[in-house]
Amino acid sequence: METIAGKEIDFDSAGIRRRDFIHIAPVSFAAVGVAASAIPLVDSMNPSADILAVSSIEVDLSSIEPGQRVTVSWRNQPVFIVRRRAIDIARTQADDANPGLIDPLSDSARVQKSEWLIMIGVCTHLGCIPLGQKEGDARGKYGGWFCPCHGSLYDLSGRVRRGPAPRNLDIPPYVFLSDTKIRIG
Ligand code: FES
């Protein structure tokens, strides 16, 4: 238990490894064909108006191992990609019927493939970026994400479990182009 921003937080550090938290760049911006190596990481991204206008990106998932969380940028906002382990999926699905869900939705309704959770990393309260993607981040007792602005907690399905956030983290439009590649947007 640790106190952050005046709130007591349970850390779920089991299984966390340094390489669990990486940022990867999109494979390409489909509409403009920019090479992957030319795309800066989300933390330092300062895209031009042309890039901002791009509506879709492709992301290669092949290097993401079970338990890893990565962040890409889409339309100038972070998209969290998580390759969930079997234990993560089981834990999340076990909460599907939990009466404490603020925005009740089954885990299966939030993913296309249970192994891959893909969602917009912006808190649905006032738009802060929740913690949980990087090593050492507070995740909260549900093992997902913690918004430091006002203390909202999200679980491993991105469902809000403690407010004031009113709804689950949003899911962007995406399709699987293959087992290891998605297009977002
Ligand atoms: Fe996340 Fe307020 S912006 S809890």
Keywords:
single chain; 185 residues; mainly beta; Rieske Iron-sulfur Protein; 2 domains; four-stranded mixed beta sheet; four-stranded antiparallel beta sheet; 2 helices; 13 strands; 6% helix; globular; disordered N terminus; binds FE2/S2 (inorganic) cluster
CA radius of gyration: 16 Å
Oligomer: single chain
Mean pLDDT: 80
| Count of helix runs | 2
Q: Identify every distinct bound molecule in the structure, by name, code or SMILES.
A: FE2/S2 (inorganic) cluster
User: Which architecture of the largest domain does the CATH hierarchy give at level 2?
Assistant: 3-layer Sandwich
The first-to-last residue Cα distance is 38 Å
- Element-by-element helix/strand order: EEEEHEEEHEEEEEE
C-alpha geometry: globular
CATH topology of the largest domain: Rieske Iron-sulfur Protein
Query: What are the low-pLDDT stretches, counting only 5+ consecutive residues below 50?
Result: 1-22, 27-47
Q: Estimate nothing, just give the exact number of structural domains.
A: 2
Please write the CATH class name of the largest domain.
Mainly Beta
